[in-house]
Amino acid sequence: MNDSNCAKVALPYPDLKVSERNCMYAQLLMQDFSASKGEDTAIHQYLYQAWTLRESYPEIYNTLMCISKVEMYHLNVLGNLITMLGGNPKYMCYHQNYTVVWNGNMVNYNHNVKQILLYDIALEQYAFDSYTAHAKAIKDENVSAMLSRLALDEHLHMEMFQNCLEKLS
Question: What angle do CA 80, 82, 83 make, to 5 degrees?
Answer without folding.
Answer: 65
